[in-house]
Amino acid sequence: MRTINVKDITETVAQLCKDAAYYLPKDVYEALKKGRQTEESPVGCVVLDQIIKNAEIARDEDRPYCQDTGMTIVFVEVGQDVHLEGGDLEEAINAGVAKGYVEGYLRKSVVAEPLFNRKNTQNNTPAIIYTKIVPGDKVKIDVELKGFGSENKSDVAMLVPADGVEGVKKAVMEIIEHAGPNPCPPMVVGIGIGGTMDKAAYMSKVALLRPLEERNAMPEYAKLEEELLEMINKTGVGPQLGGTTTALAVNIEWGPTHIAGLPVAVTICCHACRHAEKVL
Amino acid sequence: MAEAKTIRITTPFTEEVSRTLKAGDSVLITGKIYSARDAAHKVMTEALARGEKLPIDWHDKMVYYLGPTPAKPGDPIGSAGPTTSGRMDAYTPTMLDQGIKGMIGKGSRSKEVVDSMKKNGVTYFAAVGGAAALIAKSIKAYKVLAYEDLGPEALAELTVEDFPAIVVIDSEGNNFYEIGEKPYRKL
Q1: At what angle do helices A164-179 and A219-232 cross, to 10 degrees?
Q2: Thinking of the domain A149-273, which architecture would CATH place it in?
Q3: pLDDT at B47
Q4: How would residue B1 be classed by pLDDT, with cut points 50, 70 and 90?
Q5: Partners of A247 in the beta sheet?
Q6: How far from each other are the two terminal CA atoms of chain A, in whole angstroms?
Q7: A235:B137 CB<8 A
Q8: What is the full DSSP assignment across A219-233?
Q9: What is the end-to-end Cα distance of chain B in Å, rounded?
Q10: pLDDT band at B3 (very low <50, low <70, confident <90, very high)
């Protein structure tokens, strides 16, 4: 049994929030540069140049890459041989989010209640927290900052088994076409297939954490990722003002589902596909 | 497609200047622009409905759909890229009737907004979504004018120098999102 004080979790989450806001993951940066090389639209090239320059300024000067520093999604994997002491895990995570957003000059974008009052909580809490108990004596924390320009364009399609692969492609493309230039492309598309409606949505968020150059381990899904990426890059949307670099990657996660169903969830992420990870 | 030409614009931004701009033009804006987004638009249109006066006279002004990050010590503003304009569509025709001649944001607009733009001679510009640290370099001062309680959503005056933007919908309703996409659409 290993003991970890939740204070270490607070400090780690605070640092990860800042790191994710300032430093675009290297794989995303490289994908943007690759997109710039192949972009066919002159205006698209101008936009990509600005986006790449923006990543460099944010990184070199410790500034938020985007003013929408997102709603904070925290994925925690707690080893079952870990004893957490010193307080409540969720409180410790939220204390870390508050610390990171205040200290890091990040924007506080969370309202306490969605419909009637919409009062800002002033520290970006509460985070969306997904906790998983896993074997081992480590705690792994992944922090994803999810901007809402793109979140507002995300969607779920509850297909039926007869819809098959073609149905999945059609559903995904409808969501992408409907989004158009609004979610700040070049985008990263996270897709969850299977499970229940909520599980599919969860998987579509997890999919965004996978390195962009890494394809799904199952060849059929890897092929579907590639085909969808090609289709999305033929919409003409490009990097916001037309072009060939509409998406940087399509990442699919899948899971078992019911005999009657084929849930498909699509999380659209803007080019600010921001996440940071640490193992304690 | 030919390289877009770059046009320098200084504020105030009049209808006369607005009507010379064409979809696809690149511009650099210098002068004063005014930030307002969801909550400020709601408050302003509600005030107008009650017959009240707005905190500023919007004639010949440009609105920037923005909610910046807090400024670090010594900086005028934090990161400051555009937010999605479409969320302001419900309020926009009312606001354009107040004399606004330029809007800066990102993403598509409704037909009602485009009709009101044509009527009022208004230009809609896009700044690059997500280029917030870069765009902040062109903002020299940030002063909250009203609705301070709205935090990043407050109504503020920004002093800008060579703020980079692209005309996406001009005062005749030509839409560069459509024009720009067409040659690359292969589906």
Answers
A1: 40
A2: 2-Layer Sandwich (3.30)
A3: 97
A4: very low
A5: A187
A6: 14
A7: no
A8: HHHHHHHHHHHHHHT
A9: 20
A10: low
- Token couple for B38: 């969801």
DSSP 8-state assignment for residue A163: G
Residue A23 confidence (pLDDT): 98
* Residue B151's pLDDT band (cuts 50, 70, 90): confident
CA distance B88 to A11: 38
ipTM of the complex: 0.93
- pLDDT level of residue B4 (50, 70, 90 thresholds): low
Please say if B41 is a catalytic residue: yes
Q: Which ranges of chain A have pLDDT less than 70? A: none
Contacts of B169 in chain A (CB under 8 A): none
Q: Which of residues 251-280 of A touch B (CB under 8 A)?
A: 270-272
Interface contact A64-B67, CB threshold 8 A? no
Gyration radius from chain B CA atoms: 16
A64/B132 Cβ within 8 A: yes
Task: Indicate the Cα dihedral angle B59, B60, B63, B64, nearest 10°.
Answer: -160
CB A204 within 8 A of CB A190: yes
Say what percent of chain A tops pLDDT 90.
99
- A120 contacts in B (CB within 8 Å)? 151
Domains of chain B: 6-182 (3.20.130.10)
User: Rounded to whole angstroms, what are the CA distances from B184 to A48, A182, A243?
Assistant: 16, 17, 6
Answer for the pair B159, B35: CB distance below 8 angstroms, yes or no.
no
For position B14, what pLDDT does the model report? 97
- Distance separating alpha carbons of residues A108 and A117, to the nearest angstrom: 16
Between CA A215 and CA A219 the distance in angstroms is 9
3-class DSSP assignment, residue B43: helix
Pairing of the two strands A262-269 and A2-5: unpaired
| Domain definitions of chain A by residue range | 2-20+65-146, 149-273
Do the Cβ atoms of B168 and B177 come closer than 8 Å? yes
Is-contact A248 A270, C-beta < 8 A?
A: no
Asked whether the beta carbons of B105 and B126 are under 8 A apart, the reply is: yes
Contact call for residues A268 and B107 (beta carbons, < 8 A)? no
* Model pLDDT, residue B2: 45
Type of residue found at B179: I
Q: Which two three-digit tokens encode residue B103?
A: 């809007």
Residue B72 CB-density burial (10 A; 0-12 exposed, 13-18 middle, 19+ buried): middle
